[in-house]
Amino acid sequence: MGESTMTKEEKKALKAEKKARKAAEAGVGEDVDEKAAKKAKKAAKKAKKEADGENVESPTPAKKAKKESAEEATPSKDVEMSEADAKAAKKAKKAAKKAAKEAAAEKEEAAPAKEEAAAAPAEEKAAAAAPAGEGDVKSVFCTNLSWSIDDAALTSHFASAGTVTSIKWIEDRDTGRFKGMGVAEFETAAQAQKAVEACNETEVAGRTMYCRLDNPKPKSDKPKREPRPLKPKPEGGCKLYCGNLSYDIDDAAVRAFFDPLTLNSIRWVTDRNSGDFKGCGFVEFATTEEADSGMAKQGEQLMGRAIRLDWAEDKPKSW
Fold it and tell me: Taking every annotated instance into account, which residue ranges of this chain make up the domain RRM (predicted)?
């Protein structure tokens, strides 16, 4: 190794070694020689170690450049893996888009068929629920009628269309007051149709009347309400409860309904505060046998309503 390529530490060690040799050659004592030799040897070792460390930690610029170029030329495993993952992700994304497009196309193709399948039962149901044709309706529903109107006035107004066979005035269920509406029945469906065409939105008794064919309501699929079970007959019972009565009813109408049975008494139920009739009452027969006969008239028509009967008993008086 030439002196030009030696480090400072190596040069220092070499000088110390030379100095030790000169001292030995000059005849210095053995102790001095040994000490100097050891000291020079230690310095040489130390210099050598430091030189080796610098060589390891600080490579030459040429080696460093070579190493960096090699690292740049050879990509790491992580870079290779990330590029592969990116390619796979792009491929999966394309496949997902393609699958979504195909699914949307299938859905569009299936939609018309589904709509047709759903429309068929709906049409059948509508046909089944449709009311009778207008050609079969003989009654005309009239509204916005004057409070002073009567059978004669409405019959006269419809005279040009045909013959009115009956008129039903619609009243409030609770108060019995006229609600300004009614239903007129004609001899034929053609007359009813003509009455609607000729008399709708015409003036009757000072008010504009509106009318239309009174088409029957479609039948409901709901099961009919079961009749309320009767109370047990009290021993020797003679009294019956009467419900669903007309608000125009009176004693004479009730006695005529149960004739020839004998009624000892009739009591109407009224509101405690207003005194208005509540559409029900009680009748007491002369004998329990006649009460049985009266119960047999359950559901019969009384002034246009189906009467509802049940057994009743006197409440014990509280003193």
Answer: 138-216, 238-314
